[in-house]
Amino acid sequence: MLSAMKDIHKEPPQPIFASFNIFMNIAVLEDGRNLDTRPTLCQPSDYVTLRSEMNCYVALSACPQDIVPIQGRSDMKPQDIKIHILDKHFPEIPIRQTWVPEQIKTNR
């Protein structure tokens, strides 16, 4: 992401927060510190629709992981990702509640 931001002559925001792993199946172990990487529970046709409330930069990855069995396939072969950017005629979805991380609230 940092390299891509430099390529378009943009300074990345600080701090950079952890990634948002939509389809990954990562469990927090009982010790509360360690993670267990598990095969995805998603199916090939699953999808998510996200709407930005402001201009933003988005970095996407099709999870090119072939070391642990996270793909949900026995061959551990990374798969392609399909992206549709809707910039017109996006349905109006009312915002029920906004969420701001505590760290950001306290740094304002």
Automatic annotation (TrEMBL):
Pfam families cross-referenced by the UniProt entry: DUF1989
InterPro entries: DUF1989
DUF1989 domain mapped to chain residues: 12-56
Name listed for the protein in its UniProt record: DUF1989 domain-containing protein
